[in-house]
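User: Let's play a game. I give you a shape written as tokens, and you guess the letters that built it. Ready? Here's round one.
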């Protein structure tokens, strides 16, 4: 299985996207335009993030990003600058 070291900002964007999908699921069809616009904005930021230039976009990477954002796995994120590896 490939390891995807996602940067914190990318995981944060994905978490925001997941939260908005959840809010849309709970709200009625009317009045959701603002949430949908935010989803589009986040999708653009996620898909154009510099991380994807390094290893290239992949379905597996997208799935792992979703898992990392959903579960908050620290091991799926890059260490902060200056942090010690264990």
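Assistant: Ready! My guess for every position:
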């Amino acid at each position: 299985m490939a390891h995807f070291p996602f940067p914190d900002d990318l995981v944060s964007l994905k978490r925001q996207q997941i939260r908005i999908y959840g809010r849309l699921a709970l709200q009625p069809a009317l009045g959701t335009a603002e949430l949908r616009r935010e989803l589009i904005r986040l999708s653009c930021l996620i898909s154009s993030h510099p991380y994807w230039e390094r290893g290239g976009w992949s379905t597996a990477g997208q799935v792992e990003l979703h898992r990392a954002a959903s579960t908050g796995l620290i091991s799926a994120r890059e260490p902060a600058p200056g942090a010690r590896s264990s």
